[in-house]
Fold:
Amino acid sequence: MAKRVAIIDIGSNSVRMVVYEKTSRFAFHLLHEEKSKVRISQDAYKHNGELQEVPMQRTFDALHDFLQISNSFKVRKILCVATSALRDAPNNKEFIQRVNSKLHLKIKIISGEKEAYFGAIACANLLPKQHNAMSIDIGGGSTEISFIDNNNVSNTLSLKLGTVRLKELFFDANDIDGAKKYIDNELQKIPHANIKTLIGIGGTFRALSSAILKKEAYPLNKLHAYEYTCDVFLNYIKSILKADTHDELKALGIKSNRFDVIQPGTLILQRIMDTLNISKIITSGVGVREGVYLSDLLRNSKDKFPHNYNTSVRYILDVHVADKHFSNHLNLLSKKLFDLTHQFLNINKNYRYELALAAKLYPAGSNLHFYSQNKHTYYLIQSALEYGFTHKSITLIATLTKYAKNRLPADSHLQKYQELLPKDKHQTSALSFLLSLSIALLSHRPRNIDFEMSFEDGTLYITSKSTLYITKDAVASLACSNQDFKVLFKS
Structure:
């Protein structure tokens, strides 16, 4: 697969492009993202699905500029897919041939089921693992639904429900009852299942979740993998549907470019929620574009990453960790320390993974600036540790690296992120101490770990043939939340 790939998604409402760069076999990161609200389906649903000339020209112009942008990034491969609007249009060949002949861009119209599958494999690979979940992607012309259990995708389905479609057919005529009947008729096609988690994909869902995130004063500014309860969601969408003016929608946190389509999309969601017993909502920052990319990247591995592989971790290691030898030593040592001391320090054993990963990624920040290593590592983890992690894991890992080597986590930090960090503050402080201790014990940067460790009655014994002179000074300066914990060096 080419190192840099552009994915273009021609939807009913917007045309979007992402540019991804590979850093190793399965690791990648986003280089660029572009969006243009061309609304190619404008007035199409009033004319039996026929694409109209003005929207087609807007889309053509946007694609022309997208190609220019992709060329600036020296992209070697472009994958362009089109969904509902072109799929349903009797005159779609006219537009496809125009783009192909004048822009030399091949557009592939994908089926509704394939569109649902792409969105679902993006969620299955790039969100924390979910059991008994349903993904829903509300677009301008259609709504795609899939069932996800762990990494397995099933029951892909496409419904003729979309924000622009409903707006033009019903909302413009103020026929809300007609819209409800139309939606409910389409929803009968969804297989009955005991679904507990709803995964929201696409612009409508992201707009709602973004507003809820701000309304709830959520401490982490990250939409992908943002979780909240069904009650919070239902109360908010009721407010959206009751809004009579743009000012009311604005007060609810909806941006102006969504004013005319947010209520049709919200009505679809409300009717779906009435048919399911959902308890948890998860927002997906990935969808069809990422699914198209992954299906190409993972085409020889059944559209799944290798077991225990995480693409975001690998990307950070590839690009930001220069001394991988030291990184691996920190990772190994932190796990040994955890295994020896977690019972004495009263740390939940489930946090072993977060500690080990914080240790592995801790050196990343020094690649940007040595004297502000902790600050840069903290920022990198908060922003770039994107895929496959819950917000709680991201926040804990980032917190451990922020205070590593210096001091225990500040009360102000623990207070700010209290809903995402362990409820018992002692757990975070104890984990932070273990990371700092791991770093201190490797202060002399040995080629191989040149000491043995044992733990007994609150004392960690370090036995080595080396003097460990610098290491002893580093350990002596550490702060521990448990005053009974001691470190003794033995020759």
